[in-house]
Amino acid sequence: MIKATADRREGILITLRDLLRSERINVRFIRHITLHMEGWPISEAGSAELEVYGQGRETAVVTLSREGTRLHFVIKLPKSGATISLSDTKHPQTAREWIKGWVNGGQS
Asked: What is the mean pLDDT of the chain?
């Protein structure tokens, strides 16, 4: 179950990455791995995120967050450190448009 959820989240972020690249937005997909050590009771799934490169070499980070049953995009802005909740993952075009606006000098 944890593996399937992590794979689904990665797939969603990869889809958003492809949408952003189609707009010629520089983005990098990062997959975090989790090391499991014997004797430790903790088991976490790896996570993934997108780094989006804006003007002035700023880097915003896009991740996924769950709110109840809704999975949505979250972006952390570099200057202010603000965390913005973007659209539901069922509508990646909305997130793409918001990020495109940020890259082109919008909110920061």
From this structure: 84
